[in-house]
What does this fold into?
Amino acid sequence: MAGKIITISRQFGSGGRTVGKLVSEKLGIPLYDKELVEKVALESGFVPQFVEENGEHAPGKTFLSYAFAPQGVPGVMNGMSTADFLWAIQCRAILQIAEQGPCVIVGRNSDYVLKDRADCLHAFIHADLAFRADRIVRLYGESEKSPEARLQEKDKRRSVNYQHYTGRTWGASENYDICLNTARIGIEAAADIIASLAKS
Amino acid sequence: MAGKIITISRQFGSGGRTVGKLVSEKLGIPLYDKELVEKVALESGFVPQFVEENGEHAPGKTFLSYAFAPQGVPGVMNGMSTADFLWAIQCRAILQIAEQGPCVIVGRNSDYVLKDRADCLHAFIHADLAFRADRIVRLYGESEKSPEARLQEKDKRRSVNYQHYTGRTWGASENYDICLNTARIGIEAAADIIASLAKS
It folds into this structure.
């Protein structure tokens, strides 16, 4: 397995984003996390915040997309829903990034978008609820909702989005080459294993 | 993580059994695969073949259990169904084995039975259908059914059994510390990763 393009899908709060960053550093290859969001924003006309919040979330809710789209996006969208339009732009961006060579792509259903490329390693990072709850409070602070409720809401939105656009079950091990529980294995060790597999 | 007791759950044909054997050899700890079946057979009064075929399979079918049970098992079973009786004996055997120290246990929903022990590493081994189909024909020969149909039937029966007795989804990454696709990563490499995690 070449394992040159690494996709990191992750539960919110599991440390998947950090795993992605560490893997890109260990292998000396580009990371596409916020960078992917910015690329999609640039190509769609949406502001990055809108892409960030909606690119992995369940479609069907009332998007305030037009308020954020500066260049008369409805005309560009050719009758697609905002969610479908965002999905199409996101897919194209991921495929373009993969064409450029080895890299790490975090989230955005990139495991599915690149499923037909043999030169990928698809990883899923998850962790126990308590580990993730503790982590999001440390990283993002408290909010009105309990950390557990925030996690469940975010997981559900990502899961529904994934199911809707891929027809697959989010977090089902069979979609990935490797799945790791960072609460048990550790974030650094997870990154080591993935980087080592990508090199082999 | 101590990682001294390793449970290996696996899709049929994925090489999970071989991974378990390799891990036990690498770590120099006992393997419970056929050995667990024999222990359950001894303690239940069922013949090993019956335990092998039904201990991980969906309950509810018509069991010919009484024909195999030599010692008037119905009296021993205290009104439990054959499937529930087998499950109870199997759980007890797994808990007893775990009490004896470091080991590798293959299958039998052992990840769930030992979920409350901190000194475990729970692995799930899976692989693409084509890889598994090729493997079972090489290992077990041809049969009237296509290898794909045999795999799907076996996966389904294990999955229903797991769901019935644990309330969880078989193969969902969140049930395991690590999940590996042997078709992509290789059987030997999968064993190396698991053994290395167990030592760390």
